[in-house]
Amino acid sequence: MGRKISTKIGYAVIASVLAALIAGCGRAAAPEPMEAYEEPAVQVVEVEGEMLAPQEPGGDTFAGGRDYAAVERLIIRNASLTVVVPDTEEALEQVNDLVNDLEGFIVESDKYQYQEGMRASVRLRIPAESLDVALDRIRELASEVRNENISGQDVTEEYVDRKSSLRHLEATEAKLLEFLDEAEDTEAALAVYEQLREVQAEIEQVKGRIQYLEDSAAMATVSLEIIPDELAQPIQVGGWHPEGTLRNAFESLVRVLQFLVDAIIVIVVLIIPVLIAIAIPVVGLILLVRTLVRRRRARKALKVKQEDAD
Question: Which CATH class is domain 75-155+220-232?
């Protein structure tokens, strides 16, 4: 027959389990370097003489030991290439065939039509183990590879920490479910249920991040810029390079516009406020003088009228 626990003891057990949960999951949010990592101590509480601790799914007490060296590395691989091709449309068809052969997919594709030919930009995802094959086939369809960059992001440490946190959370969830079954009153049951909801929400977040890391590592991303030969060739007429003149004219235009914008900023921010500050007292002084002169003239005219009247 199931053992009943008191409300007071139930709250103490819940608090202890949640403390263990926070200690175990804190590392996953901001993992430290592997050589400096220390596993948080597991909280152990006593309920009516029985020692309880968070359990792994297999039933063993959670020790939390992480051996990063023994885990297969999880690498997110990316590549970017800029290639020159004889015909852009044909190159795009070959890229589509490549994606289909390697069981990948195209994420994004853009085309830009110029008078000299079409330029294209393609982003595709392919199985990570086929990345080298894909790069070789892309190089084969190009008459020139102008730029190539291959990078990898090692997410093994985060992945291991997330998996460990998931085991810890699932063990805590199981223990909270047990406490929920053994709660003897509504107040205790509601308290356990509220904590259970928070733990289950955290489990879903951790599972989502784990799935994202697995998917990202399974499929490599290739960003491809395709330039036709006509656009790649420099413009030259009888030894004259009009692109140089065009570049110089554009640079001069930018400098002129920059000068005009700077001048407007100086006028608005500096010159106008200074002129206003100078003009206010000057205008005030002029108005004061004019007022005094008018009053003086008015008094003089009045005096002359009085003398004429006498």
Answer: alpha beta
Higher-pLDDT residue of 114, 83: 83
Query: Which among 203, 181, 202 has a CA at the least distance from the CA of 192?
Result: 181
3-state SS, residue 252: helix
Give the pairing of strands 219-228 and 144-154.
unpaired
Please state whether beta strands 75-85 and 219-228 pair in parallel, antiparallel, or not at all (unpaired). Answer: parallel
Q: What is the pLDDT of residue 161?
A: 92
List the one residue out of 118, 120, 97 whose CA is nearest residue 110: 120
Which residue is it, tokens 């930009």? 121
Q: What is the pLDDT of residues 224-277, one digit of tens each?
A: 999 888 765 555 445 455 555 666 687 788 889 988 999 999 999 889 988 898
- 237 CB burial (10 A radius; 0-12, 13-18, 19+): exposed
CA angle 153, 135, 118 (to 5 degrees): 110
Cα–Cα distance, 136 to 127 (Å, whole number): 15
- Rounded distance between C-alpha atoms, residue 134 and residue 222, angstroms: 9
Structural domain spans, the chain: 7-71+169-207, 75-155+220-232, 244-310
Could you give the CA distance from residue 234 to residue 241 in angstroms, rounded to a whole number?
A: 8
Q: What is the mean pLDDT of the chain?
A: 77
Contacts of 114 (CB under 8 A, 6+ apart): 231
